[in-house]
Amino acid sequence: MALAMLAMSCFFLLSAHASSDDFLPCLSRAIPEQLLFTRSSPSFASVLTSSVRNPRFLTPATVRPLCIVTAMNASHVQAAVVCGRHHGVRLRVRSGGHDYEGLSYRSLRAEELFAVVDLAGLRSVRVKRRAATAWVDSGATLGELYYAIAKVSGRLAFPAGLCPTVGVGGHLSGGGFGMLLRKHGLATDHVVDATLVDAEGRILDRNAMGRDVFWAIRGGGVGGSFGIVLSWQVKLVPVPPTVTVFTVQRSVEQGAVDILAKWQEVAPALPDDLLVRAVVHGQVASFQSLYLGTCEALLPVMRSRFPVLGVNRTHCNEMTWLESVAYVYLGAHATVEDILNRTAAEDAVFTKATSDYVRQAIAREVWAEIFTGWLAKPGAGLMILEPYGGKIAALPESATPFTHRSGVLYNIQYMNFWRAAGEGASQMAWVRDVYAFMEPHVSKNPRAAYGNYRDLDLGMNIVGGGDIMSYEIGKRWGEKYYKGISALSNGIVLLATCFNQLCISQQAPTGLCCFKRN
Q1: Which of 499, 456, 518, 490 is nearest to 217 (CA)?
Q2: How far apart are CA 502 and CA 450, in angstroms?
Q3: Cβ neighbours of residue 151 closer than 8 Å, sequence gap 6 or more
Q4: Dihedral sign, Cα of residue 266, residue 362, residue 255, residue 417
Q5: Under a CB-based contact definition with an 8 Å cutoff, are residues 491 and 510 in contact?
Q6: Tens of pLDDT along 210-264?
């Protein structure tokens, strides 16, 4: 009975006979021709690849969309939704193009008819200094948001990710964390309003969409499960005029194993103004830090709390918060204007990634084995360790669909890279094999993962008869990203309207796509 109610309340009916013959003329009546690119358009390929960040998904076998709508205002998005619904064509939504599995612009099913709604043209940022808020469109990048904030006030910031080319829409819908996570928590924790196009093509704000949908889009909306968010109102956070960053590298010969083993206990318990992350590659661990204050104030903290790292004044670099964004991700010689580039050199690199959460410190001997047995392999990738604790852990798990909070020591991202098409088998195998090796040492029941680091190896939807997705299959991967909240076996009632039109391989399926807050 409960599962029947879930399916009835969530299934979004599309036309039984999907056809591009009717869909494209429908779009043409509402969208200027210069904003609509079909497969026969001379610019189709360049528009499709304009924000593809992982060329692994640009092969002759890639299932391409019927067309790309390069939306410039809300009416273009509304038209795509209404036409898609009436003519049985599903939608993909792309803001920055950083979807780890390329699911914002491709399909795994050759028979699927779908279109891409590209939001890169919706990139306005409107900052109100006195209110300490900003309205930011989903197509803006994090770099554009950061730059706009800092131009209004050097004492305001926003706690989101490190990579400046990431699109705001996807980042906020999946949670979003970066160097300010311990002081200010997730990006999505600071969303105070949003405008959304629902399955009927209506534009809804926070009040109109209702508390359950507003709750769900802030961390549970990866893949557009609940509609297409056009813009977000976010609360900005205070930062001092001077912050301090450092990068300290330690090799295995210099004690990296012992330092990393100690880091696990120290980093999540440091003062909230201080974040020290670790990037482990080859036989070296790099410790990157942001401190909200001066070097003079930082050094006593490091000496008393983490002396084994050996941080001294020569390691300190004092700068503004905006300068720290460029420094941490792009390097010491980057300028603040560099974060406005919507493309970067690393966007041309083939990648494979997945993630884990750690709740109990990993034993020293395991780290020694990781260095000697995994990071020393030819073609090995890297591990990025982001410490939690502080503000991110202070909110209850039910505050948003992002449930990885209290009790989490740190997040691990496993990532590997290669440069040429046709390569990558050994690099992808490394990611999968090290992920299997780590199973005894990371979170359990479920083994958790971060939704913005999407990985289809964790599971994907299986579409059956009537184009209906399996709840049980979706639950297997959904619990990894959303823990108990998405385990709808508890009898949680679904929202009345599910945006199942945006059906993708790890979008919440029928019976899982819409979940209600506790």
Answers
A1: 499
A2: 20
A3: 127
A4: negative
A5: no
A6: 999 999 999 987 556 789 999 999 999 999 999 999 999 999 999 999 999 999 9
